[in-house]
């Protein structure tokens, strides 16, 4: 299925190349915008100038391997200079909803370990308030129904993403109908529910830079 936003995603991905440095270890996110970045890493010759990469998903790891980029274990590193990833929604305050691709937990880990998180999106993802995109929550399978009841009590309508198992062997609830007025508080509240592995709100640790691709170019926020 063709993605009408792809040219804008490609523009944002190209703008991220300016943040790369020779011999860098790059954190690489997941999704079609990041796939555009990986393609550019190859076509622009940047892949061979990296020391290696830490991938936020098995899918991105496979693409990076095909691109000839050495895959590194985050446990063997002191940290990362840069993480580049997409998002499902973003505010101008650089708070995000992520996890549409189901990789939210590893994305959160790599973002947390990175000194700088550059988020690349097409302009259709920019919102005044998070929450129109259903909020993904990764849960331990045996806790799914319990977590769903707690999310309902928080005002949401959780829907089990059936047929999806995360790279960590868990399940995902997509929470519809949340009015996210205080993203940091909601992130904290959801994180405290027993059985939640992670929530796709990136508010306590937002992106440091947002590159927004549009028809007229790329806006840096
Ligand atoms: C995956 C993510 C992605 O960054 C998000 O879903 C955006 O994807 P795309 O670049 O395909 O629009 O969080 O878990």
Report on the architecture of this protein.
The protein has two domains: 6-125 and 205-220, Rossmann fold (3-Layer(aba) Sandwich), CATH 3.40.50; 135-200, 2-Layer Sandwich (Alpha-Beta Plaits). It is globular and about 50 Å long. β12 (209-214) and β13 (217-220) form a beta hairpin. It has six helices and 13 strands. By secondary structure, the protein is of the alpha/beta class. Bound molecules: ribulose-5-phosphate. Ribulose-5-phosphate is lined by residues 29-33, 85-88, 98-104, 107.
What topology does this entry show?
Blueprint: H1 6-16, E1 25-28, H2 32-43, E2 52-55, H3 58-66, E3 80-85, E4 89-90, E5 96-97, H4 104-113, E6 114-122, E7 135-139, H5 144-153, E8 157-160, E9 171-176, H6 183-191, E10 196-199, E11 201-202, E12 209-214, E13 217-220
Parallel strand pairs: 1-2, 1-3, 3-6, 6-12
Antiparallel strand pairs: 4-5, 5-11, 7-9, 7-10, 8-9, 12-13
Helix pairs in contact: 1-2
Bound molecules: ribulose-5-phosphate.
